[in-house]
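Reply to dn_fold:

You asked what the input looked like. This is it:
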Amino acid sequence: MLLDSTFLIDLLNCDTDAIDRLDDLADAATPVSFSVLTAFEVGVGLSGATQRERYDRVTDAMTVMPLTHADAQRATVIQRTLQSQGAAIGSIDALIAGTALERDEAVLTRNVDEFERVADLVVESY
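and this is what came back:
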């Protein structure tokens, strides 16, 4: 399961829905990871040592997925297709979707509207 920034931000804010969903994933022994791009998005928004420490605690047990050339190529196809339909999504979201598709992973997000535009991408919310 590839976690989107909305999910990590909600975890950092102690959102009970996000916490419950992470517990469910742990109970099911579902591996969780997040993109290096998500690390960037969330990291930019962290304010102060307390939030940074909480972020480190939450993410230490998770795998950070690098962005590969194949991910970028897949994201390019995704974004060009969506642009041709007048339904483009944010560039980082396209790259995250490309990463998920290349690894045959679902994306866990509250940003369902954008990610559901991507063909063949499994999108889960909480």
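The beta strands are 2-3, 33-35, 63-65, 107-108, 123-124.
Hope that clears it up.
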